[in-house]
Amino acid sequence: MTTLIKNIKTLVQATNNTPSIARGKAMQELSLLHDAYVLIENDQIADYGIMDLCPERADQIIDASGRMVLPTWCD
User: Fold this and answer.
1) What integer pLDDT is reported at residue 16 of this predicted model?
2) Among 7, 19, 56, 65, which has the highest number of CB atoms less than 10 A from its own CB?
């Protein structure tokens, strides 16, 4: 099963260099990706990026226009 969340206004903590744990001063600078998508396969993030590179197909598509997505946020 694949789920595509597209048209994300702001995708928070989307980077290839995100540490496994961010706390204290590291939380002062969050990586942000605007106009983005997230592709989920078998309950795991399989891909993400800017909408220009968004896949066209998925089993389920969620339009997140005007919304923020925080897929790795845990407090």
Assistant:
1) 65
2) 7
C-alpha distances (whole Å) from 4 to each of 19, 45, 62, 63 are 24, 10, 6, 8
Please state, in angstroms and rounded to a whole number, the distance separating the CA atoms of residues 6 and 12: 14
Query: What's CA 74's distance to the chain center, in Å?
Result: 14
- Residue closest to 2 by CA, chosen among 40, 47, 49, 48: 40
Alpha carbon distance 54, 37 (integer Å): 6
- Say yes or no to pLDDT of 56 above 60: yes
Strands (E), 21-65: 32-41, 44-50, 60-63
Radius of gyration (C-alpha) of the chain in whole angstroms: 13
